[in-house]
Every structure is written in structure tokens, then in C-alpha cells.
Amino acid sequence: MKVLGILGSPRIGGNSDILLDEALAGARDLGAKVEKIALYKKKIAGCLDCGKCNETGVCVIKDDMLLIQKKILEADAVIHSVPVYFWSMTAQMKAYLDRWCAFFDGDWRIHKFYFPKMSKKKIGVITLCGDPDVSIGDPIIKSFKNTCDLSGLKWLGAVRASAFQKGEISKNSKAKKQAYQLGQKATRD
Ligand SMILES: Cc1cc2nc3c(=O)[nH]c(=O)nc-3n(C[C@H](O)[C@H](O)[C@H](O)COP(=O)(O)O)c2cc1C
What we know:
binds flavin mononucleotide; alpha/beta
């Protein structure tokens, strides 16, 4: 069992990072191998909509996303953690998600090359926002959940939390527990 954590915040040790670590700890405590990737350290260009991946299953852009796509394929579950920037996901996370195109065919079905590995994959999301209203994270959750619903990937669930200052979420034991439980769920469902 492998659980991959994808960090969409550029703040290492920030709120998204802390909750992602909680989720990965939950998975690790149930025996999963875990790995975390911080997207801001990677070079990931935006999708070109060239359509080549619809035919070949391979993206024409040769950057760090190719290795990340490989790690996604190898993982049983992928948990994303990302702050809200201007009512949306961070640029790093958006570029990453758009490059998921390579996993799908022209009809947004899982590409036949990846079907055995992708069809059982579980996808979870953690959102952070400075606003006390955690529903500010819902558009991000919708992006990931709709992607799962459209393509047949398994939706693991979401954790929404509010914090503004770097590391402030470490005082929120409820959010940490929810993230931990999301990680545990990734190893079970
Ligand atoms: C560029 C930028 C835009 C932001 N936009 C929003 C926003 O639209 N709504 C909100 O509630 N918080 C917003 N925030 C606050 C962050 O979501 C919040 O500080 C979060 O805890 C950061 O998470 P991190 O520590 O993982 O980076 C923004 C922060 C930055 C830097």
C-alpha cells in the first residue's frame, strides 16, 4: 500500500504541509509506505491542449510532471493539500491538475494504457483558507471530486480547515484529527 502526498503550498512547514503530514502519518500508522512531493520545488508547465496524450497516453512536455505522473500511477491513494489563493487553488496545484490530462482519453475516460492502475486509485483533498468559513475551499474540492466522478477514480473525501498565519493550524486538533483519519481511510477503502 502506497500513499502519495501532494503539497500545493509554497510554505514548507505551513498549514497545508502540517495537515498533509498528519494525513500521511495516519496512513503510515496503518502500514502504508508514504511519500510527499512539494510541487513548488518542481518545474511543472501548464497543459498545452495539444491532444497528443489522448492518442499516446504520454504528455509531450518533458518536465518534472512526468516523474510525478509515474509516482501517481504507482500509488494506491493520492492525498492533496492546498491553500486557497484568491478563491481557487494555488498556481502550482492547478498546473499539476491540468497535466492529469495525460491519464485520460479524448472522452475523459481513464486512458486504456493506465486503466488497471488508475481505475482503483483513491483521491483525497485537504484545503486551507484564511477565511473562518471553511467552505471557501469548496471550489478546489469540486475540481478534484468532479475529476474523480467524471473519470471513475475513487473519491476518498475532503478535509476543510481555516488558518492564516504559517503553522497556525497546529493548534487545531480537530483539523489534525480529520486529516489523520483521511490518511487512515486511504489505506482501508
Ligand atoms: C496569494 C494569496 C491569496 C490568498 N487568497 C485567499 C483567499 O482567497 N481566501 C482565503 O480564505 N484565504 C486566502 N489566502 C490565505 C491562505 O489561504 C492561508 O494563509 C493559508 O493558511 C495558507 O496555507 P499554507 O500555510 O499551507 O500556505 C491567500 C494567501 C495568499 C498568499
